[in-house]
Amino acid sequence: MRRAIESDVCIVGSGISAAMVADRLARTTSAAVLVVEAGDETIPLPRRAATRERFLRYNENPWGRDHLEGYEIDGPLQSRSMQVGGLAMHWGGVTPRFSPDDFRHHSLFGVGTDWPISYEDLEPFYQEAEELMGVAGEQGPKELDPRSKPFPMPAIPLTYNLSLLKDWAAKAGIATWSQPSAKNSVAYRGRAQCCRNDTCSPICPVGAKYSPDMTWTALRASNRVRLAPRTLVRKLVLAPDGKTISHAIAADRDRPNDPVELHAKLFVVAAGYTWSSHLLLLSAQAGAPDGIANSSGLVGKYLTGHRNVQGYIDLPIRLYPGMNEQHSLLSKQFMRAKPGAPFMRHDLRVWESAVGKGPRLADDDGSLMLGDAILSDWRARTKTGTARVRAYYDVLPDRSSELTLDAARTNAWGDPLPRLAFRDAPESAALRGRTEDSIRALFESMAKAGGGKVLRTSVDNFQDHPAGGCRMGTDAQSSVVNSWGRTHDHENLFVVGAPTSVSGSCANATLTFCALALRSAYEIERGLPRSTR
Amino acid sequence: MQPLRPPRTITRRSFLAWAAILAPMPAIVRRAHAASILEIQNDPATLHALADTVLPSALGTAGIANAVRDFTDWGAGYHEGAEVVHGYGTSRLRTLGPTPLTRWTSQLADLNARAQSAHQKRFSALARAQREAIVRTALQEQRLDRMPNVADANHVAVALVAHFYDSPAATDLCYEAQIGKQTCRPLAAQARKPLPMMKLSER
User: Fold this and answer.
1) Are A338 and A436 in contact (CB under 8 A)?
2) How confident is the model at residue B43 (pLDDT cuts 50, 70, 90)?
3) DSSP 8-class letter at A206
4) What is the mean pLDDT of residues B91-104?
5) pTM of the prediction?
6) SS3 for B126?
7) ipTM of the complex
8) Domains in chain B: how many in total?
């Protein structure tokens, strides 16, 4: 039997961008907001200490059944996770902002595409996101780290190890500071102070790291949103006028034979870089033969992100790994490319590490050690320390960096699964080797400055913090949504957060996705009744 | 758009047929796992003697006993087939492999057999040097280039070592400092050098 649910705003997805939108709409409007999530409820906070323990002991997934069966896809999916709260249930909570240059690649450097907004346009929403989540941070050099207001919380203090590594980086001529993070340096909005359990990713057992379930718990407790888990939206349906979305069709996983119609004045697709484009493409119908919002043919195109070069450097300083392993130093010193020069930029982060300093079973000659010999050997090798260094660098997306529907793989409802392929734009492909070599050379110079040596380096082929697929722009021929996330084709359909990104910068991008989502919410609320609270 | 349908179409008859085939397998695995736990509990001396052979003497008698208890708790809590944490960049899911306890119990029995053969005594009744010689012989055919994950350890002696050295206590022992990794500790204290370990007499 077909069921219908009515709302003013229907948000598809319950990840971090959805949480930002819902939170803002709940504060500023009196709209009835429905949030639909394909996955299950997440593990509640009181159970996380126990699931974390099993993660530590056995490497078990601490998030329970956080995925849908049968979703093995072709391509580098960021994570299989699908649950209330989305991927940010297990994020690291790292929240740098993009730089002003990120929004003007073409104007400044002649590569890629300019965003239709500037850093200044987004700045108030960065601040709002930081305050909503609770970001602890330290003001970096103003020219590299512009902001209009202080961080909501003081920075996570540097560990003893990071203080030593900061001095070392300074010897190499690199200014570093405490990595901004959505982790409580002090108790914040009813959430506990960080007590450095060291497992921020995948799970914080005390709730000191922000995760979207915290927003959902608060909004549901005050009846300001209705959240429907285990409800998979399969299609957006056009109204007879062909211009607006009439309703969405969803499958209730508990009642698979009873389709659900979701009727709303306004639809917000907040399902991340994969499932947002996927839903729009799945929604092909008369009047939208290539998918909803796809008159440009660009839905699913220009998937973006960044790669990294990582290294481990042996240094003649004694470090104590385990003090707060996931906290790091940050430098944006290399995030400013020179106009006119080849477009090569990267961030830089520095962590304590135990790599190369762990206990071992065999000595340098390959002889087995037992008993006291293992401990003696370990102690001898930990008189010096290891620094982990990592640089994310820009990868400008090609049009063929894309999500398409995979006719060979379908889900349990017979819908094609997505296929993902990330491809560098020619200008990025041409510079890849040179960029990676320059980062390796930087690591070598850092090692030399500290009297150490590079143990090894590696390049992650996987693009981190993936985004795009519904990129924003002013021209309906070359973008899917406008700068507010409203689709060019349909007045009452927004796509928010990661999918709307034009490029992926060279820094962790989740805070930017949140700021973009809040900016979309600012536009969405203008068409809704104001809050009377 | 295809009509909505349940995730999998399966008749009651085919379900029962499959259940008849598959149901005994987990039950057998669970029984073997439980039997292994019981076997270790019934002969604690061999495991203690092994720990005393392969773990550092700095732990002392109480530390060795704690390490053995933690190790047996670890084994008892192992859930074959449990889903492991998702990897990034892939949609592939992975699960924990077969329980290692069954092979470890047979290896403990093998240590006793070797002790009987060489010295006509149980493994736990031997001097430490004799035990170490037996362990070294037993490990001769193992590839031991690095410390494995506990569950992946091919031999119970290596599993004991890997389990202990993965613990916060082992890190503190190595650095002779109160680091307390992966435990809830005051945030402000991370700014200073970890305090030195207390001597046993000071505890």
Assistant:
1) no
2) confident
3) S
4) 93
5) 0.94
6) coil
7) 0.93
8) 1
3-state secondary structure of A20: helix
Distances (CA, A) of B73 to A154, A431, B66: 41, 53, 10
Residue B35 has pLDDT above 60, yes or no: yes
Does B88 fall in a domain? no
pLDDT band at B116 (very low <50, low <70, confident <90, very high): very high
Task: Write down the H helix ranges in chain B.
Answer: 12-22, 24-42, 44-54, 60-76, 101-119, 128-138, 156-165, 168-175
Tens digits of residue pLDDT in B48-83: 999 999 999 999 999 999 999 999 999 999 999 999
Contact indicator for A385, A318 with CB cutoff of 8 Å: yes
For residues A321 and A359, the answer to whether their CB atoms sit within 8 Å is no
What is the 8-class DSSP label of residue A60?
B
Cα distance between residue A374 and residue A457, in whole Å: 27
Tokens found for residue B50: 């092994």
Q: A52: how many CB neighbours lie within 10 A of its CB?
A: 21
Cα distances (angstroms) measured from residue A379 to each of A77, A357, B78, B150: 41, 9, 31, 21
pLDDT, tens digit (0-9, with 9 covering 90-100), for A413-440? 999 999 999 999 999 999 999 999 999 9
Residue with token string 């209009």: A148
pLDDT at A237: 98
Written as one letter, the residue type at A163 is: S
Q: What pLDDT score was predicted for residue B2?
A: 46
A67 touches chain B (CB under 8 A): yes
Q: What percent of chain A has pLDDT over 70?
A: 100
Segment (H or E) for A493: strand A493-495
Of B88, B161, B193, the CB nearest to A79: B88
pLDDT over threshold 50, residue B15: no
Tell me the residue range of the domain where B52 lies.
Answer: 44-76+97-182+190-197
Interface test with A, best of B33, B84, B85 (most A CBs within 10 A): B85
In a domain, residue B37? The reply is no
Instruction: Tell me which architecture the domain covering A3-156+181-303+398-424+465-527 has in CATH.
Output: 3-Layer(bba) Sandwich (3.50)
Q: Is residue B18 part of a domain?
A: no
**Given this model, what pLDDT does residue B24 score?**
53
Angle at A237 between CA A235 and CA A239, to 5 degrees: 170
Please give the C-alpha separations between residue B191 and each of A37, A155, A414, A422, B165, in angstroms, as whole numbers: 41, 12, 55, 41, 25
| A166-195 pLDDT tens trace | 999 999 999 999 999 999 999 999 999 999
3-class SS at A165? Answer: helix
Q: Which two tokens stand for residue A102?
A: 């990120």
**Which residues in chain A have their CB less than 8 angstroms from residue B181's CB?**
198, 321-323, 325
Q: A144 by DSSP, 3-state: which?
A: coil
Nearest Cβ partner of A57 from B55, B74, B89? B74
The answer to whether residue B82 sits within a structural domain is: no
Residue A86 has which token pair? 């989305």
Q: Chain B window 8-37: which residues touch A at a Cβ cutoff of 8 Å?
A: 8
Buried b (16+ CB within 10 A) or exposed e, A171-205: eeebebbbbbbbbbbeebeebbbbbbbbbbebbbb
* Closest chain B residue to A307, measured at CA: B89
Lowest mean pLDDT among A235-249, A328-342, B149-163: A328-342
User: Between chains, do A375 and B58 touch, taking CB under 8 Å as contact?
Assistant: yes
